Amino acid sequence: MEIKRRTQEERSAATREALITGARKLWGLRGYA
């Protein structure tokens, strides 16, 4: 269970980072940055 929990946390954290990075890239291209 601990391993699965750690994996889920890592996945959620990686997903958040990916979304933030993608959003920043889009904002930068659109000139919002």
From TrEMBL:
This is TetR/AcrR family transcriptional regulator. It comes from Mycobacterium tuberculosis. The lineage of its organism: Bacteria, Bacillati, Actinomycetota, Actinomycetes, Mycobacteriales.
